Amino acid sequence: MTLIACVSIPNLPIMVARQAGEGSPDAPLVLYTNTRQRALVYAASPDAGVATGMPLQQARVRCPHAIYQCAVPERDGEVVATLTALLRTFSPRVALVDPLPDVAITLDLGRLTRAQTLAQIARIGHGIRATVGLRPAIGVASNQLVARHAAQRAGPDVALAVPTGQEAAFLAPQPITSLPLDAALLHRLERLGVRTIGALAQLPLDALQAAFGASGQQLYQLAHGVDTGTIALTRNAPSLSRTRRFAGPLLERGLLERTIIDLAERLTAQLIAEGWAAGRVVLTLPVDDGVPVLVEQVLAEPTSDRGRLAHLMLALSRRAVLESGVTAVTVTASDLTPVIVAQMELFAPAGGQAHQLGAVLDRLRGGFAGSLLRATLAEPAAQLPERRVRLEPR
Amino acid sequence: LNHDRIATLQQLVATIQRRWGTRALRLLGDALPQIPNVAAIPTGFPELDAVLAVGGVPRGGLTELLGMPTAGMTTIALTLIAHAQATGDLAGYIDLSHTFDAEYAALVGVDLATLLLVRPSPAGDALEIMQALVGSGGVGVLVVDSLALMQSNPRDAMLLAQALRVLPGTLARSPCALLVLTALPYSPDMTRALGFSGSLLAHAATIRLHIAREAWLPHAHGAPGCHARVSVLKHKFAPVGGDAQVLVRFPERIEP
Q: How many CB pairs under 8 A join A and B?
């Protein structure tokens, strides 16, 4: 199952303004805009006690000791654009779900293990702090709805991951006003005494359908933390390829396979150098008298392992039915994803596996202390066999 | 079959293939199943590698080696470990029978310094450790000696059955070649009881091999050893029924 992360930066204009040295750290800050000959609050720090969209005059009455400054929406827009571009380096599926001032961006992390998810979240957080200097709250869950709620509940520099299967339990204490429902529906629910998502989840589906018609199904799903919405692809995943042309049609399988292995190794070196892992491999073999032979395979998990990719390319070449000479070979790695996490985990050829194995051994040492042993030849010249070999905890 | 029946059969095959594709049904005489390209670790015994058809013990699969004691099972397993270590793989040995002989392993060529030796005190722990090591993706070959011992205890047998249901999936995603040694008792009646056929282990295995000693090597040949016959009882990638004679040499200890 794919995981969705939601990066939330509440009150982004205030954070950007404070970062630029505007206002005073000790005093509330209110940013306003002059639109339609009327000054309105654009963003305000929480301690000001004023709301976004409030008339400036009313805000000045409510919080006279705050510092009032004219907002710079263009600057905030640039920060959001930079943030979105940064997140697109982590996933091709990124969506801005909440615009300024309380920015929330969701991104599809793909299928990750728990350890990979934690590493990826740490990378995202570090990247945001390093690039725009802001402290994001990150929520991770199996869908956008729960991920947004998790991000809202997490504080700055905090990541909150909701385990798969725990979505309904996580949402239960939240007010129903936090669900993306229209005002009329919320009003009807409140009149029925349903104030939390947990209370809504206790209502059976047929009762909801009877009371709310077509919206009943949607309410039921939302209450149980089910959100089938997906994040659209915002950019095409890149691909890399290597080609070699032959002087004439090649019929010898052995030479063809050696060429494929060589090209696959060069391609892998390029993948590793540029920090990519391939999600799909394609082998194209143009032949001298017909349509090029094209064989491809989608990988269960992206990889940049040299041996694995070479093995896959070789296997693809053996699947290809060649009835005439091959004039060129093209090996392509597509659906590329950054190996930020992958390299740390199982998919890396040696280092990642050693890292993973080290973690597993640490865990096993904790649970099965006396079971993991190291055998050493202690006294090879000893008379008794048990003295020649020593078994000690690993 | 007479000509009419052959014609009818061919017509039926052609009809089915037109409707459901050529892969839906085919006569084995027309096209023998091709052996897929499976990554494998050479056992160190060329005859055995040849009969295995994939060049050795396949990675990502469970290979069960059955045989009576002194047939050469342990020597084959240790030689496999030595070969895997020589190519940079990390090896593990789960010693449920508590019979691992480190001195002999070193003589066969096993690098003891990098060998993960596991001796779980309750046998049930072995399954969890085995799954963790396989799932880690860092172990190239893992030898288990022997899971059949767990079938004597009902609770362990239940745990084994549960583990074997999920193990093939974990194994398929890892580069680990899992070799399970099953020592058969001398009594043929007990052979069936210990899962020679029909057990969950047999079902989960990618390859099952039976090894039987045929003759001891004469002393004139130098190092002790035996001729053993290895038969393929089950093979998911190649036809079963093949067998090979393997020369197993036991390295001699140099007594102090």
A: 89
Determine, for residues A381 and B39 on separate chains, whether the beta-carbon distance falls below 8 Å: no
Q: Do the chains contact at B129 and A314, CB–CB below 8 Å? A: no
- What is the C-alpha separation between A95 and A234, in angstroms, rounded? 8
d(CA B82, CA B76): 10
- The H or E element containing residue A319 is helix A306-319
Q: Do A357 and B137 touch (CB under 8 A)?
A: yes
Decide if B139 and A373 are in contact by the 8 Å CB cutoff: no
Question: Quick check: A221 and A232 in contact, CB under 8 A?
Answer: no
Going through B110-159 in order, the beta strands assigned E by DSSP cover 116-118, 141-145
Tokens standing for A390? 């020593």
The number of angstroms, rounded, from the C-alpha of A34 to the middle of its chain's C-alpha atoms is 38
- How much is the pLDDT for A353? 55
Tell me the residues of chain A between 275 and 304 that have a Cβ less than 8 Å away from chain B. Answer: 300-301
Is the pLDDT confidence value at B255 over 70? no
pLDDT tier, A373 (very low <50, low <70, confident <90, very high otherwise): confident
ipTM, interface predicted TM-score of the complex: 0.71
What's the start-to-end Cα distance of chain A, in Å?
36
Chain A nearest CA to B245, separation (Å) = 31
Closest CB to B256 among A358, A372, A381: A381
Q: How far is A113 from chain B (nearest CA, A)?
A: 12
Higher pLDDT, A242 or A336: A242
Which residue has tokens 């705050």?
Answer: A66
> If you ran DSSP here, which 8-state letter would residue B217 be given?
P
